[in-house]
Amino acid sequence: MKDALMSSAIETLRTISLRCVECSTLYPGMESGWKPRYRCDCGGVLDVELAPPTGAKGLRQLFDERASVPPTWPVNTGNILPDHSGVWRYRELILPVPGQYIVSRPEGNTGLYPVGTENCGTGRIGHRQIGSYAGLDHLFLKHEGENPTGSFKDRGMTVGVTMASLLGAQAVACASTGNTSASLASYAAQAGMRGIVFLPAGNVTVGKLAQSLAYGATTIQIDGDFDAAMQLVEQVCNELGIYLLNSLNPYRVEGQKSIGFELLQQLNWQAPDWLVLPAGNLGNTSAIGKAFRQAYQLSLISHMPRFASIQAAGANPFYRSFQQGFTLRESVQAQTVATAIKIGDPISFTRARRVIEESNGLVEEVTDAEILAAKTIIDRSGLGCEPASAATLAGIRKLVERGVMKRDESVVGVL
What we know:
Order of helices and strands: HEEEHHEHEHEHEHEHEHHEHEHHEHHE
Largest sheet: 6 strands, mixed
Structural class: alpha/beta
Shape: globular
Radius of gyration: 20 Å
Low-confidence stretches: none
CATH topology of the largest domain: Rossmann fold
Number of domains: 3
CATH architecture of the largest domain: 3-Layer(aba) Sandwich
Helix content: 25-40%
CATH class of the largest domain: Alpha Beta
Strand content: 5-15%
Strand order of the largest sheet: 4-5-13-10-11-12
């Protein structure tokens, strides 16, 4: 089994390169000694580059066929399980791993809800209230809270833990404000690995802390904020050879691209005019933007949507930089009720900046009061979400009020 696993890892990594987003230096998918690389020698973060898939023109049909596979469970589930996953269904564009080595719950397959005043349909009175609040006729909400541990982090974690398994890792670790720790703990337990999470004391919700503990992760609370926890976990992983699974890990971010592929599939491969999402560490902005870029390059869609990243006003380094034309980058002391985006020095800054620039997008900020007001609307509609997710609706409403976003444009917001 070990030899087969190693052979599979070698075959998988042969098709992968890692490129620095700052200086464009290219590295192999894994260097000698199977030591993971998370940063370029210049300090920049890395982006995964896959060899172009063969038969690109048939990808849409392939993905649609996989989505239609009935949920049956034969004796050999090696290929069935990945097809059920809203991540591994698109594995040719994420990580081409044989099905039997994939660590999946499965994740993804989250709802895309029509909530605009015109597209919500009859019988969804609560949903129409969201459209009225936003001021949009054609609005969809992609609810990533429907993932196994309650957040989009599961999409990245299934890829990160699968890679850790291929490399023979015994332990994985992360810094977290809650969602990442719960996800890592769950997937590490499934893979039989030790999970270690570093949390900023007093800045993690009780529910997420309980998840980490219940799944058996070694949970360490530190004095300081998320950024301090991130610095510590990176140091510990490098010194002790533990596999790091924050969004600094380029493979984990690749899994989050599946949000983009899945919502496009749900829209019959018709890209919206706008894609709006909360922005903390900026992994989703960069990942979903990359997914749309790939879909456009492969002719799966006819155009790129404009991206709008929404930050909390008390945790807004990306917004501040955008206001200055991205000429400056400064960290902030983050303070917001939206703990999942309470990050003052986002790791995926450069990757996300590229998405905003190439899509003619923008970055907006919303106050905690605006976030909580939007959360009330979403909760009362029957969908529900955490405060960080509500930043999406708060941002959409603000952009419509400013006239940046038009009432008749098609908009997808990620919760």
